């Protein structure tokens, strides 16, 4: 029996999404065709298509008035129409899809320009699962707020460190944008999208509300992470256990789930979780702000080595998330150590391909040219092609260089107000505290990495 798959999604995700799905499935049944339809509605994705479903399908019908990602249907013939067309004339759409597939036609899906590193990054992202996947979803949505807020605050300081205190000035407006708006949103956005990753749309409202409460009671990014996971799993649990008659199902995503999950998360944050987490955050912030000497260097060594250990993997992201979250508490030194240490692996390897060409294959020497750009852009994954070819020599080399970079960044008491941007943010005044020592730490880490490669890696025959 022939098989096709489909997706339906309308802007509100309440009625037409399910009407279109039902219409397509009934039409397929009448035509003697097996059809599975995934719905992307207000309660999230239901009847989700698996890789096996898509592999077995001859064609695809997308009936949507909302954005639907098509990358997973690469190589298939896709009929892409408005959701109303699937309700009005489903048999014609199914027939059109099968005719296209029988002719051997496929739909061209633009994936943009990806080089080897970007493909590796995308592959790693797709392999994330469980709590790590949910946390990274929240962090990735938070980063634009941190970047915009950090840069706005830095620009405010261009007029003087206390210029923002004078109302009505441009410095005050920039501080309001950065600290008052962007930084105030970063924890709620992170919490909201952690919950969204777990429970889909029903998790977003309780997650963001929990994040705002975490901010207001001083529980910081740690409270936001807890609120996000709490909101996601509570919303998912409620979604699974509450069953309503079909005519009342529209009330579930817009009334029942947001109300019950938001109240539960909010009350738990206020009466149970908030105070202990607040105490932890205050202690952590005071400890980091007072840190100096050996302790600071040791923290830099640990963060630096973590950044290079798996080059964008879970350990790297743990160090990055820790440092990014501390920006909300005005602790900027760990962020400086982490970004500098994340740049040196590809930069050091790029330098090694120039100085010690006899240690690399011709393809690796060519890859070194791209590594310059990737390292300068704070894309640590630029070291992966080298590490994949010779992990026992490359990983110790880049970890040594990154650990020294992190240690020097902390020793020099440098700071960084934005969580990304590589060398390009160095051009913006007041973003980096201790600009010259910071650049020096990156240069020394790059040189150490290259020299370690020279020592550990034998000449290629």
UniProtKB/TrEMBL annotation:
Domain of life: Bacteria
Pfam name, any one: PTS_EIIC
Keyword RNA-binding: no
Record's bilayer topology term: Multi-pass membrane protein
Gene Ontology terms describing biological process: phosphoenolpyruvate-dependent sugar phosphotransferase system
Keyword vocabulary terms for this entry: Cell membrane, Kinase, Membrane, Phosphoprotein, Phosphotransferase system, Sugar transport, Transferase, Transmembrane, Transmembrane helix, Transport
SUPFAM superfamilies from the UniProt entry: PTS system IIB component-like
Gene3D superfamilies recorded: 3.40.50.2300
Residues in PTS EIIC type-2 domain copies: 131-461
PROSITE patterns in alphabetical order: PTS_EIIB_TYPE_2, PTS_EIIC_TYPE_2
Localization in the cell: Cell inner membrane
Molecular-function annotations in GO: carbohydrate:proton symporter activity; kinase activity; protein-N(PI)-phosphohistidine-fructose phosphotransferase system transporter activity; protein-phosphocysteine-sugar phosphotransferase activity
GO cellular component, one term: plasma membrane
InterPro entries: Bacterial_PTS_Sugar_Transport, PTS_EIIB-like_sf, PTS_EIIB_2, PTS_EIIB_2/3, PTS_EIIC, PTS_EIIC_2, PTS_IIB_fruc, PTS_IIC_fruc
Spans through the membrane: 142-161, 173-196, 208-234, 254-274, 286-311, 331-356, 368-388, 394-412, 424-453
Ranges for domain PTS EIIB type-2: 2-99
NCBIfam families with a match to the protein in the record: FRU (TIGR00829), PTS_IIC_fructo (TIGR01427)
Name of this chain's protein: PTS fructose transporter subunit IIBC
Source species of the chain: Iocasia fonsfrigidae
């Amino acid at each position: 029996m022939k098989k096709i798959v489909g997706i339906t999604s309308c802007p509100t995700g309440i009625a037409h999404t399910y009407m279109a799905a039902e219409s397509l499935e009934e039409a397929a049944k009448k035509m003697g065709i097996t059809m599975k339809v995934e719905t992307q509605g207000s309660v999230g994705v239901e009847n989700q298509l698996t890789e096996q479903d898509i592999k077995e399908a001859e064609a695809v019908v997308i009936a949507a008035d909302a954005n639907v990602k098509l990358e997973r249907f690469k190589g298939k013939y896709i009929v892409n129409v408005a959701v109303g067309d699937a309700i009005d004339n489903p048999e014609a759409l199914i027939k059109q899809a099968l005719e296209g597939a029988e002719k051997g036609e496929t739909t061209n899906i633009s994936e943009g320009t990806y080089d080897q590193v970007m493909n590796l990054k995308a592959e790693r992202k797709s392999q994330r699962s469980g709590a790590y996947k949910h946390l990274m979803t929240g962090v990735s949505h938070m980063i634009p707020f941190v970047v915009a807020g950090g840069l706005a605050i830095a620009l405010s300081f261009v007029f003087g460190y206390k210029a923002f205190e004078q109302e009505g000035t441009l410095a005050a407006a920039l501080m309001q944008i950065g600290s008052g708006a962007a930084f105030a949103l970063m924890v709620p956005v992170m919490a909201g999208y952690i919950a969204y990753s777990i429970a889909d749309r029903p998790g977003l409202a309780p997650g963001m509300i929990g994040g705002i409460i975490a901010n207001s009671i001083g529980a910081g990014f740690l409270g936001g992470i807890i609120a996000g996971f709490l909101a996601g799993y509570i919303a998912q649990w409620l979604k699974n256990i509450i069953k309503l008659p079909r005519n009342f199902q529209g009330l579930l995503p817009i009334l029942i789930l947001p109300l019950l999950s938001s109240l539960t998360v909010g009350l738990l944050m206020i009466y149970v979780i908030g105070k202990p987490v607040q105490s932890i955050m205050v202690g952590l912030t005071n400890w980091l702000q007072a840190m100096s000497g050996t302790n600071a260097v040791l923290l830099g060594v640990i963060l630096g080595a973590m950044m290079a250990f798996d080059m964008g993997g879970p350990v790297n992201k743990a160090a990055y998330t820790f440092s990014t979250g501390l920006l909300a508490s005005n602790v900027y030194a760990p962020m400086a150590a982490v970004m500098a240490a994340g740049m040196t692996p590809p930069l050091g390897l790029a330098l090694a391909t120039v100085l010690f060409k006899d240690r690399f294959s011709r393809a690796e020497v060519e890859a070194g040219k791209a590594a310059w750009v990737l390292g300068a852009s704070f894309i640590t994954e630029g070291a992966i092609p080298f590490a994949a070819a010779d992990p026992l020599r490359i990983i110790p080399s880049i970890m040594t260089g990154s650990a020294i970079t992190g240690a020097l960044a902390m020793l020099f008491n440098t700071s960084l107000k934005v969580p990304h941007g590589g060398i390009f943010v160095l051009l913006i005044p007041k973003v980096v505290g201790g600009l010259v020592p910071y650049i020096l730490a990156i240069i020394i880490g790059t040189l150490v990495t290259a020299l370690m490669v020279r020592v550990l890696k034998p000449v290629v025959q």
